[in-house]
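## Example pair
The file below holds two records. Each record gives the amino-acid sequence first, followed by its structure token line.
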Amino acid sequence: MICAELQSPELRKDFTSVNKIAGKSVDPGNAVSRNCVLEHVVLHIVHDENNGISRSNLGCGISALHGPMLLSFCLCMVNVLISACQKISDFGKKPFAQNSLPVLIHSAERAIDPDIGAACIQFLFSAVYHLKSAVLPYSSDLLKLALKFLGKESEKEKIAGVKLMTALMATEDVIPESILSEGLLEARSLFSSISLTDPSLDLQQLCNKLMSCLT
């Protein structure tokens, strides 16, 4: 349904409520689409566990769940976005990126639960791979986020950071060389630290392989 919405010009309206949650303002000149199902899915991922989201926030006549969100449901919503990301047409890639990436980047940065943070990074990894140049406006934020997760405590979050960094390194048209070159210096330092001190042997070996790609 998300892919169908992004294919339909008649459904293109201002999509502002989700971006406001992420502290982002939308340029009216970009004519970012407001897509009911996509908005519904994204808002469930960024749901405020204390206050809930009202029907007016969601739009489209869809009311949000109130009370704490179940972790499994939130992860399911992330998987919905990953699936849509893999199937989206070229026509829908840019609006899909505009409507989802800023919020998921914000959610990953603020996530308290490692599972939620890692899931958001998994979506962003998929977005870098499938959306290609549509993620270019968010390349700097994606790089900073990958570096941040490489420095996390949990193995799951570190692995997520490694995967996102690998995707950014492998996709030439996503990050300008001037931005990537600075990030790679920090990434190499973090890879080295993980390969020497992390208790996970698999993670050590993975970071060793990535360091060899940077030499």
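Second record, same layout:
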Amino acid sequence: MIHNTLGEDAKIFDIDEEPTPSGLYNKILQSPDAIEGESSYTKISKEFEAWKEKYPDMVASLKNFPSRIKVAKDGAENELFVVIKKQKLFVHQQLYDAKEGSENHFIKEVEDILEKIKADINEPPLPLSNQFWEEYEKIKNYQENPKNYKPIPDNNLQTRAINVLRNFLKINDNQSVTILKPFVRMLLEDLLDYGTLSDYTIRRIANIDIDKNFTKAVDELKSIEKELGSDYLYKEKQRISDVSKEIIIAIENKKTNELPTQNTFNDNISK
């Protein structure tokens, strides 16, 4: 009788469970999570509340975090996750070690990547790999135009500038380059995320030829740093009001000691 009355709603009972008036009342009082299983949103909310209680100062400091964060940590696979919040939430996964010709980019749900991006409170951050910026750029380009996604041509002025800066980051055991690397990373971040550099400056970077004249290349970067200021992007970020509307968090998982890394004395978190 109750089955006939409830129709489709009788599914709230187990298959072998005989519906009764009192049983129906108890089912109605249960939360949806108790009936259908805890939702991902509920799990995340509970975990966040637990962190707020256990680490209140750390959670409170999130208010002061920048809208662009890049960090690397130890992981089971070499991969990159980029979470982009702009009206909607987009989660990208880029596999570094996928076989040639196989799919290496995926759109994910947050709950699918939670276990992979978690880190212990005491786990130290790792330096970003040399591969990070290339994969990060691919995801940014895909996000901006997924239907018509095409890599930016290699002869594009901005692409040439990005390649020059990437090549600088690959140079190790050279003190003059090591000192410049924080500024080089800042230029890369600007080109990929903010776009505050003038065409003139981008052209100067693009025309740098490390192989042809290394000393001249280093001097040109030093000159650009002197003109712009070693922390110019920090000031620009404060002036770009629209940036706060879009949040981008990049988490790189690295099999320890497998990926070449950038030498850095600073945290990877963008300030």
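Notes on the second record: The longest strand covers residues 79-86. Confidence is low (pLDDT under 50) at residues 1-17, 263-271.
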